[in-house]
Amino acid sequence: MDFAVERAFNSLYIYLDIVFLVIFTAILLWKKRYLALIAGVAGSIIYFAVDYGIFYHLMGTRVVTGADPMWLLLWLSISYGLTNFSWIWLLLDRNSRWVEWSLLIVAGWVAIAFLSQGLGANFAQISIARGTARYHSIMAGVMFAGYLWLIIQNLRTKTIEKTNLLKLLAIGIGIQFSWEAVLLISNIRPTGIVPLIVNSLVETNLGIPILYLVHRAVTGKFNENLSKI
Question: Which of 14, 121, 124, 219 would you call most buried, defined as having the most Cβ atoms within 10 angstroms of its Cβ?
Answer without folding.
Answer: 14
